[in-house]
Amino acid sequence: MDLLEKYSWLFMIMAIFLGIFLGRVDYIAEGASHFIVPFLMVMLFGVFLQTSFGSLKAGFKNVRLAGLSFLINFVWAPA
């Protein structure tokens, strides 16, 4: 376990408070909405990069869970 993994909880808390603080600054808050999707993509890429293909394959073999996830993400949430 490297330093980043060990203290990832601390980095997340610091990022949350930094985001809250910077969201209060007017000239930053105006353009912040343009950065939500790119930063979210980078964050999710980092999370999914740590997922092994074996566990991903096992997750799709669970048909009920995969179907429920599909319904929530692509049917319920857009509706």
Q: How would you summarize the topology of this molecule?
A:
Layout: H1 3-6, H2 8-23, H3 26-31, H4 36-49, H5 53-61, H6 63-76
Provide a descriptive summary of the structure in words.
- This protein is an all-alpha fold.
- 80% of the residues lie in helices and 0% in strands.
- It has 6 helices and no strands.
- It is flat and about 45 Å long.
- The relative contact order is 0.05.
How would you describe this structure in keywords?
0% strand
What would you say about this model in short?
It contains 6 helices and no strands. The protein has 79 residues and is mainly α.
Proportion of residues in helical segments: over 70%
DSSP strand count: 0
Give me the Rg, rounded. Answer: 17 Å
Tell me the structural class.
mainly alpha
Shape verdict: flat
SS strand fraction? under 5%
pLDDT under 50 segments (min length 5)?
A: none
